[in-house]
């Protein structure tokens, strides 16, 4: 006689079914085949697709000039000047203020405060918020992810089927003296359970003039050609913001490049590029808006036994606390819920 399932097994199965039903409700295009992981044993696996010898990281679509393609291939990033209009930037800024004042409630949105003020009395004002994350259900902010001038360049890296995977609006506060406004040098792929890396790109737009004084992006050109490295929390005296992991070991002889940009300028960069940002030494707040895109042809991977396993556990534990559930959710479930198709066809992700 077959063994009958236990009460605990039945409860876990029911919880899993409820989660899957929720995913189908939120994402009509999501079904049994969507998000199905493929078995790659290591998180350092970057790509299985063969490219022409001269170009690996960019695709042929006549948008980038040969000089721009060569620059991205060699350095792992590209700056496009004045790509987003002042009007759009100010619209996004106003929507950010509305959220900070709690005038609108956005499903799934994470409103994050800097560690230096996280334990202080909450004031519903933009000065208390250091970052918005996962604004994909806020149509006005999400419009950034669908701007035609942004997607025109994104397609050079992802191809025509484009998913918006991760969204952020960062409001870097003036440093309190504890240096918590800086961001350690890291690789974005550390947080991502999908591959190949070469079909993922970030679009990062300055919402005002940004330079070394208020904490511009700092990059290590060419570091995208290396593997995914071990990350952990840096040992900083003033504390570190949640999930602000940094690369444990990298070649410190590589010259750093500080990307000073103007309002509306947009930086596109590879998820293996080692980058970070310095302290905000001014009295104002430094704002940027960004989205990580991936080809919907990408696939999810199993991170158990890899250098991303600890990050996965921290992210899943945080999601369970946020949603108040003990259901057996996975990091893949979280990413399926937060991602949205912006162009073409949804295939794997």
From TrEMBL:
Highest taxon in the source lineage: Eukaryota
GO molecular function, one term: L-ascorbic acid binding
Biological process (GO), any one: 2-oxoglutarate metabolic process
Record's catalysed reaction(s): 3-methylundecanoyl-CoA + 2-oxoglutarate + O2 = 2-hydroxy-3-methylundecanoyl-CoA + succinate + CO2; eicosanoyl-CoA + 2-oxoglutarate + O2 = 2-hydroxyeicosanoyl-CoA + succinate + CO2; heptadecanoyl-CoA + 2-oxoglutarate + O2 = 2-hydroxyheptadecanoyl-CoA + succinate + CO2; phytanoyl-CoA + 2-oxoglutarate + O2 = 2-hydroxyphytanoyl-CoA + succinate + CO2
Co-factor(s): L-ascorbate; ATP; Fe cation
PANTHER family: PHYTANOYL-COA ALPHA-HYDROXYLASE (PTHR21308), PHYTANOYL-COA DIOXYGENASE, PEROXISOMAL (PTHR21308:SF1)
Protein name per Swiss-Prot or TrEMBL: Phytanoyl-CoA dioxygenase, peroxisomal
Organism: Podarcis muralis (Wall lizard)
